[in-house]
Structure formats: C-alpha cells, structure tokens
C-alpha cells in the first residue's frame, strides 16, 4: 500500500504535495559486520544520522525517532528474513533502512537496503566502498537512491554548496561543503573579499570574484588540481561576477567600466567574445537558462532594479518583473519553467519565484526577516538561500514551493551567496 | 568512490601553513600603528605597504589608507577627521549628487587643485541592503559620479581613479538607517606611487 502509492507518485515527481503527509520511515543504526574498533559505534550511528539528516531535509519523510526502535541493530540481521518486520510496523514505520559495514584499514564497505514494511519486501540493495572519512558521502548517495525509488528522480544529497563566509574572521572567503556541513573545504584564503562563487557544470571548478589582487576580477579555480586562471579585464575595467554556461564552454561576466556595468560573453579562458548589453545603467547578476540560449539578469534601466531576459540569438531583452521596486539575483530553474529571485518587500528582502513568461509570482519566505541569494538544486526541486532569521546570515534550504525551510549552516560568521553544485560522482 | 577533494585539501594545508608562517612576524603591532600621527611625521617613509600609502606627503594630507587595506589591518575604513577630502553621502539605491555632496566635492576639488601632484582613488560604498553584485555596480556608479563632478570642476581625470567596494567594507555595522546612511558614501584616498587607471 505504501510503496505502490509511491510508485504512482513517481509520475508527478513528488512524494507528497505541499502540506501533505510525510512518509514514515525508520533508519536503523548500521550493523558492524567486521571487527569491532573504537570507531565502530561512531560509524554505526554516523551513517544512519547522515541519512536521517538528508531524509528530513527533503521534507518528504517523517523519520521515526531512534529511541522508539524495538530491535537491536547489532543483534538482528540486515537481509530479508533475518529480522522481524513487526518490530517496525509496530512503531509506525512504513519504510525501513537497514545496513551493515566493515572497515579494512582506511577503507569502508557499506551495504544498505530499503525495505517496504507493509509488503515485507526489499526495494533497494546497494554496496558501496570508500574511504572511512567519506562515510557520509555513502549515506548521501543511498538517500539519493531512496528518493529515486519514491519519485523517479534521484535525490540531490550527493552535492555540495559553494558559499561565502566570514567564519574565519573579518574577511570573506569561499568554502564548499556538503549540505550537512561535512567535508568542508576552504577554496580561498587570501584575507580579502571573495564573492559570487559559481560551479562549473562538471563540478570540477569554481568561478569566483575576488579583490585579492586589489582590483576586483574573476578567477577560475580547479578543485582537483588546484590550478587557477585569472581573468584579466580590458584596461580600466573590472569583472564583478561571472557565470559558467550550461555546456561549460563560455562565461557571462559583468564588467564595470567608467561606472557602467554591462554583460559580456567570454570563453572559458576569459577571452572576450562579445558584449551582450550596451546600457549606461547597471546590468548585473546574469544567470543562464538551462538550454544556454537565454540569460536572465538585473537592470536598473527602468529606474529601479528589475529582472530582464536576454535572448542570445536575437540580442533582444524583455522585462520579466513589474511588481516591487527592487528585484535582484535571479536564478533559472534547471527545469526551465521558473526563475527564483530576491525582491524587496516592506523594507525587507524575500525570495520569490516567477514563471518565465512573467506570470504567477510567488513569495516563498517571510517578510519579517531578510532572505537573499537563492540557488536551485540541480533537480530544481529545492532552493538554498541565505537568511538572517536567526541573527547572523546562515544558509537555509527549502522545497521549491517554499515548504520545509531548514537551516544548513551555523558558523560563527555570516554565510551568504550559496551556489549549489551539479550532481557529483 | 573516488577521492574528491584529496588534492585541494593538501593544497589548502600547504597554503595555510605558508600563510601562518608568513604572517607571524607582522602579528605584533608595530610602531606605525600609532593612529593619528601627522602626515608630516610619516612623509618620506614608504612603510611596509609601499605603493598603497595612506599619506600623500607633507602637511594635512592624511586621507587614511584604502578601505581594503584598512580591512586587512583590522581597522575601521573611516576617513580621518584630519583628511583634506571629506566623504560624500548618497540616498538608498541612488547615485545622484545632493547639494551637500556637491559642496563637499567643490572643497575636495580646491584641495586637489592646490596639491596638483596628488592622485586620488575614489571609493564607492553602499549599505548592506540589496545584493552584493548590484551594490558593487551601484558603488561604481557613486564613485564615477564623484569623479565626473570633480572633472567638471577642473581636476584632471587622469589624477582620479575609481573602485567600488559595494557593501563589502562598511564603516558602520548596525542595521539602522543612521548606520546605513554612513555606509552609502564615496571616499577619497590619496595614492602614492601607483599609476592611475
């Protein structure tokens, strides 16, 4: 009754509708299948905790609290027939995740299974091998499989978010981490101001703007090799930001010169291809359509910052937003149908989405605090953003309709300008 | 599972170690940190940060260092009271010059004409409302508005460069209009030994 209803839901790509019931699932601590070490307990619960975090972040599941579990994780089996489904149906679980692990040196092998408690069936079984310290990544990958089982589209938990943080002090540096804050990596450490990180579509590079050479310009940093390319603007100009195209072959950059900012198309080495806008005002914050044929951006040509869509083939722009006097930082949904942006309402900033034809604008966050800098998940089903609702700016994630807003980061500084990676290996 | 990020992690450790090592000696406050020292006292001493000098030579020419340098040194990017060139201020999301701003710019132009070797970088700043990128563009507009007015008053354009720090280096950090209004400004910083762009 449960998973079949999920199979139906797969048609629409959603497990439950807005405000609908969440699917009750239990996630057992993992059974140690190898030798006991000092780390075994931490791994047993750590892998389960990482899955619980992701399932709850999705907003589609109600994870039954571990204190209610009846069976002993280490005393019972992890395969069909080696445990009693009644132990799980009794506590209201309709889905069940069980698994085991063994550690060999610095390598871990993890087996994970999803069971249908009502039908007493196994739905997914996977085995993963990786470095022990990457055990959370295994958990994220399996949750992506669970979400694929339920919705027909894999989850987005094996991804990273690049963002700007002042957690290291008064400087703004760029970091990347998983959504649960694990595997945090500091991309810049130059004690200046680094802004606007943008993932390349292959997930291997970060384009960002920095004042590290005093005059602001763009840098393309390769995460795997540590190589970096500096983009040299033409004389008297400064690159304020840039975005890599969906095919990875070009970059739309904002260039400021004599006080005017316009959009320019560059190749991936930073060579100028052509100027895209020619305006005496402010043209900033470009973002690509998923097919790479259009760019949504901000212009103040009407007298206030508003969103416009530029068609690259014709070179023509059309205005997208007409309500509100300050609309900025647009991002085009990977699904193509909507654009998310930051709008000013009642002296505060909130996250809105609007259809690509300009219809159906919706406010997703409260106007009693500020929320800014939205970024789509690679499947278009979630939006991450920064907000000061808990005092300082932290990163949050919500469903694309605005439900289930949850905090991701809690560093001592301000975390802003999130940019969601593509799906990663 | 591949080994994502293994290489950059090592790189980062290396950079961190390098930075710690190279920063260690300067961690002790030196004698140059005596704020308020007169321009005359420091004239002719290039200092550690040569090329980004705060002081334009003899006399009342202490405009303070560039805001980025102030940030790096852990100082507030405030313009010293003794600066011969005062800040000008702007309305929210505006870059037109008020009559007060023009009055200040006329005084700044007079000083520049009397000190004809001084080259100045005009910094555009914004309050922290709105998005970082838009504010970088807005700050550039503010700096450019000041530059153009100084030029119409007879200051050679080649002596005036601009930079925008957007909302990134505020002089006041509270969320209130009195604070925001202090951050919506253009600052005038005397450059030494750097070509203007």
Structural overview:
The complex is a heterodimer of chains A (about 425) and B (about 200). Chain A is mainly β. Chain A has two domains: about 150 residues, TolB, N-terminal domain (Rossmann fold, 3-Layer(aba) Sandwich); about 260 residues, TolB, C-terminal domain (Neuraminidase), CATH 2.120.10.30. Chain A contains four helices and 30 strands. In chain A, strands 1, 2, 3, 4, 5 and 6 form a six-stranded mixed sheet that branches. A four-stranded antiparallel sheet of chain A has the order 9-8-7-30, with no helix packed on it. In chain A, strand 24 and strand 25 form a beta hairpin. In chain A, helix 2 runs parallel beside helix 4. The longest helix of chain A has 19 residues. Chain A is elongated and about 70 Å long. With about 200 residues, chain B is α+β, with helices and mostly antiparallel strands. Chain B has a domain of about 130 residues: OmpA-like domain (60s Ribosomal Protein L30, Chain: A, 2-Layer Sandwich). The N terminus of chain B is likely disordered. At the A-B interface, strand 6, strand 9, strand 14 and strand 18 of A face helix 1, helix 3, helix 5 and strand 3 of B.
Give a quick rundown of the structure.
The complex is a heterodimer of chains A (425) and B (197). With 425 residues, chain A is mainly β.
- Overall mean pLDDT of chain A stands at 93
Model regions low in confidence, pLDDT < 50 over at least 5 residues of chain A: 1-19
What is the CATH first-level class name of the domain at 66-197 in chain B? Answer: Alpha Beta
Strand content of chain A: 35-45%
Q: Using DSSP, what is the number of strands of chain A?
A: 30
The CATH topology of the largest domain in chain A, please? Neuraminidase
Corresponding CATH architecture of the largest domain in chain A:
6 Propeller
Strand content of chain B: 5-15%
User: What does the main sheet of chain B amount to?
Assistant: 4 strands, mixed
CATH class of the largest domain in chain A: Mainly Beta
* Oligomeric state: heterodimer
* Count of discrete alpha- or pi-helical segments spanning 4 or more residues of chain A: 4
How much helix is in the residues of chain B? 25-40%
Shape of chain A: elongated
Given as residue ranges, the uncertain stretches of chain B (5+ residues, pLDDT < 50) are 1-60
């Amino acid at each position: 009754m449960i998973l079949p209803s999920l199979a139906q839901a797969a048609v629409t790509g959603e497990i439950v509708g807005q405000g609908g019931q969440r699917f009750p699932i239990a996630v057992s601590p993992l059974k140690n299948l190898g030798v006991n070490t000092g780390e075994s307990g931490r791994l047993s619960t750590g892998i389960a905790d990482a899955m619980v975090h992701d399932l709850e972040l999705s907003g589609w599941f109600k994870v039954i609290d571990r204190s209610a579990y009846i069976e002993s994780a280490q005393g019972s089996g992890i395969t069909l027939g080696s445990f009693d489904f009644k132990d799980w149906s009794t506590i209201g679980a309709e889905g069940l995740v069980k698994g085991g692990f063994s550690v060999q040196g610095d390598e871990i092998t993890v087996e994970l299974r999803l069971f249908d408690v009502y039908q007493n069936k196994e739905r997914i079984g996977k085995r993963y091998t990786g470095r022990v310290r990457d055990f959370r990544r295994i958990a994220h990958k399996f949750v992506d499989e669970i979400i694929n089982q339920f919705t027909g589209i894999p989850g987005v938990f094996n991804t990273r978010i690049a963002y700007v943080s002042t957690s290291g002090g008064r400087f703004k540096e760029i970091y990347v981490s998983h959504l649960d804050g694990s595997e945090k990596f500091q991309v810049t450490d130059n004690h200046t101001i680094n802004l606007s990180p943008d993932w390349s579509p292959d997930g291997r590079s970060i384009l960002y703007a920095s004042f590290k050479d005093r005059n602001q310009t763009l840098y393309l940093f390769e995460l795997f090799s540590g190589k970096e390319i500096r983009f040299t603007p033409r004389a008297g100009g400064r690159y304020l930001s840039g975005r890599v195209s969906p095919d990875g072959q070009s970059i739309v950059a904002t260039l400021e010169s004599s006080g005017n900012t316009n959009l320019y198309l560059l190749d991936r080495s930073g060579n100028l291809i052509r100027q895209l806008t020619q305006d005496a005002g402010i043209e900033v914050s470009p973002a690509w359509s998923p097919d790479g044929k259009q760019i949504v951006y901000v212009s103040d040509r009407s007298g206030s910052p508003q969103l416009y869509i530029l068609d690259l083939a014709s070179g023509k722009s059309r205005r997208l937003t007409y309500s509100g006097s300050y609309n900025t930082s647009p991002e085009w949904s990977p699904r193509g149908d909507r654009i998310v942006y930051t709008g000013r309402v009642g002296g505060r900033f909130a996250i809105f989405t609007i259809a690509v034809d300009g219809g159906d604008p919706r406010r997703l966050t409260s106007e009693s605090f500020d929320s800014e800098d939205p970024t789509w998940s690679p499947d278009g089903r979630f939006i991450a953003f920064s907000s000061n609702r808990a005092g300082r700016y932290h990163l949050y994630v919500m469903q694309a309709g605005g439900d289930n807003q949850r905090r991701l980061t809690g560093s001592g500084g301000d975390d802003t300008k999130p940019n969601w990676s593509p799906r990663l290996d | 599972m591949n080994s994502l990020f293994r290489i950059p992690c090592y790189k980062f450790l290396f950079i961190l170690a390098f930075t710690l090592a190279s920063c260690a000696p300067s961690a002790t406050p030196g004698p140059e940190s005596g704020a308020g020292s007169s321009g005359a006292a420091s004239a002719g001493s290039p200092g550690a940060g040569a090329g980004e000098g705060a002081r334009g030579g003899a006399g009342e020419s202490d405009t303070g260092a560039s805001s980025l340098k102030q940030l790096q040194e852990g100082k507030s990017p405030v313009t010293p009271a003794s600066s011969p060139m005062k800040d000008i201020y702007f309305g929210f999301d505006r870059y037109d010059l008020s009559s007060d701003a023009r009055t200040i710019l006329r005084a700044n132009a007079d000083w520049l004409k009397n000190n004809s070797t001084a080259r100045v970088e005009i910094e555009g700043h914004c309050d922290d409302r709105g998005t970082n990128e838009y504010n970088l563009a807005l700050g550039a507009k503010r700096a450019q508005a000041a530059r153009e007015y100084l030029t119409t008053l007879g200051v050679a354009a080649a002596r005036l460069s601009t930079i925008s720090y957007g909302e990134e280096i505020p002089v006041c950090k509270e969320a209130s209009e009195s604070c925001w209004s202090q951050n919506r400004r253009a600052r005038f910083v005397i450059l030494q030994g750097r070509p203007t762009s």
